[in-house]
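Please predict the structure of the following assembly.
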Amino acid sequence: MSKKIMIVDDALFMRMMIRNILTKNGYDVIAEAENGAVAVEKYKNTNPDLVIMDITMPEVNGIEAVRMIKKINKNAKIIMCSAMGQREMVFESLQAGAKDFILKPFQAERVLDAVKKATSY
Amino acid sequence: MDTSGYMSLFLEESREHLDNINNKLLLLEKDNQDSGIIDDIFRSAHTLKGMAGTMGFNSVASLTHSMESVLDEVRKNQLFLSPSVIDLLFQCYDFLELCLKDIELVGDDSQRDPKALEDSLRQLVAKKPDNDISPAEPVQQHTKGASPKASTMELDEYQKDIIKQSEMQGYNTFEIKIVLVSDCLLKSARAYIVFRELETLGEIIASNPSAEDLEDELFGNSFSLILVTSSDINAVRRVLDQITELESIEINQIESGSSVHTDQDTDTTANAAAADSSSKRKLGQSIRVDIERLDLLMNLVSELIIVKNRIQNENYYRQDKNISESVEYLGRVTTDLHDAVMKVRMVPVEIVFNRFPRIVRNLARETNKSVELITRGANTEVDRTIIDELSEPLIHLIRNAVDHGLETREERIASGKPETGVIILNAYHEGNNVVIEVTDDGRGIDLSKIREQIIMKGLASEEAAMEMDEARLITYIFNTGFTTSENVSNISGRGVGLDVVKTSIESLGGVVEVSTAAGKGTSFHIRLPITLSIIKALLVKVADEKYALPFGNVIELMEARQSQITRLKKQELIRFRSHLIPVIRLDRLLECPRKRKSDSDRMIMVVVKKGDKTYALVVDDLIGQQEIVIKSLGKYLSDVQIVSGATILGDGSIALILDINHVA
């Protein structure tokens, strides 16, 4: 069964890109969210296997969203997606429980590698 | 393979390694038992060999190879490191340096034949009793045999104890070496994930580099750690396999007691390098930048400052508060940017100082004197452009110090001084200047000889010479053709030198002063501006022309009446804080035509200093202070001394920068 993935990013462009990479490689993108608050709601409803989460977003940012999702499911798997130069934020989200991170601008292989490793165990 | 693109990198790195060889050889002279130093020289020679081989510079490659063979013998204690061996190694160094110069100039080292040196080196190796090593033996083996202990990180007693105890309780201890993919970004966060995931299995009791350094990203692409865990090696591997951007993972089980044992083939050179880097002080990450790019950046900042000055000159912005605030902010940012770029261009004087131990050593040998060179403040930073010009004058001064300054061993003992003479090279910052001192504890400068020479050369009348005080007399040593040394040696004493020192320091906008005490020594002080390209200046008007006076020279502004000026012979003087100082009328000096006579008898004077002398310059108007960008006048006007350069002002007009040293 293909893995269910939720993409959270305020930029439609980024969501499209990630979605394309994932669907081409057999993953099932079951939900998208444009900010942390929506992400938490959708997480509850769809219970994806993996979340790809942007850090900087309006309303509720990625780090907050990680914390909230981890409260719902402490085994939730989340990969952070961040621009360069957000070192502190990356650390914070890792401490909050994110499993891995990828840096924008990213290459498709990196995304796939991260997704594959995060969902394989 | 086309290697031309790597040329500058090759030259730069080779120079570093050569410098290292030179420095370490000097250390070896003091302590020829230190195997760490020998290893270090060996590594540099080895790296040079590799680089030169790749670039096709066969003389360098071939000689460094022979050097390696000798060094290896020394390392294995099969060859005694006698002074003659060190001398030979120094000769090799000289040869390599010449090769590098050739490569730099003509792109090739084939003109230099290392055969003679190689033969001498080979003889050394052959001389030892049981000679069974051909010089062509592969190097890799040398390295391996040499550092068996360098196969892992060093553990302290406490950590060893933990390993022992955990072992007794049935825990496993793994040494894990992680190499990140070469383009890994945010390596510290990656390392954090590795630590976090491994800590779900057990405890990490040590890491190399330390956890703090890993967090601060002070590491290359790899790190090692020691994990104590109840899990087996497969569980550890599974956890690590989940982590992305890891190039390779090496897991070795280790046991207490003996040092960490690995059964895998470890790269000894990499480990040796790691050990080496950990022994040095922590260095931040750095990148190499072509100096031309920095010059370009500096030029752009200069242009920015010109534009900023121009905007600030415009009046309209003052009416709008928003604009005026922005302009002020722009001003601050530009100044900060200027400072930042300046800092980037700064290099420690160490680069120059490093050459001197060798020079002093050679001079000491030639003159058969015992000399110790002490350097202080080697990390004082100076602008790159200054560093390049600094070397020659300093070499002059050091030669003088060894040759003239210091007495012979016998003389020193006779006068109750320690046999070894001391030369101190000291650098420090003072305000916007950097000061470099060359001090010796030798015999000092004989003032009576200076007096003799002054009279003999007809530089002053006998009475005048007798009346001169010490400070006045001593300035004569900077005159061309002046020497107090009776015998001309091939090192110095020909009377050329100090005048060259003086002109080159002055061309950098600096001053050189000297103080001496008979029997106690001589000290030269060189004072240089930290930077040459942007300065603060006072803008003044003389007739209708604008001039810039470097702020460093300006003491005070004052207003005076014609009646306050007194005359002594033809020189106009004015009282300034209980001293009479010369008045210089810039309009006459600069021959500025004045359209109309000013009717007021009030005059504006700028009091400036040059060394310890002060002058009052008469100007027509003050414009204000400003950061100005110095543009050189170019070769065409290079014999104009009174003007050191020009600058473009905000309104596009040009102001000439006066060189106070030549105005007065």
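Chain A touches chain B at residues 84, 87, 90-91, 94, 99-103, 110, 113-114, 117-118, 120-121 (CB under 8 Å). Chain A has five helices and five strands.
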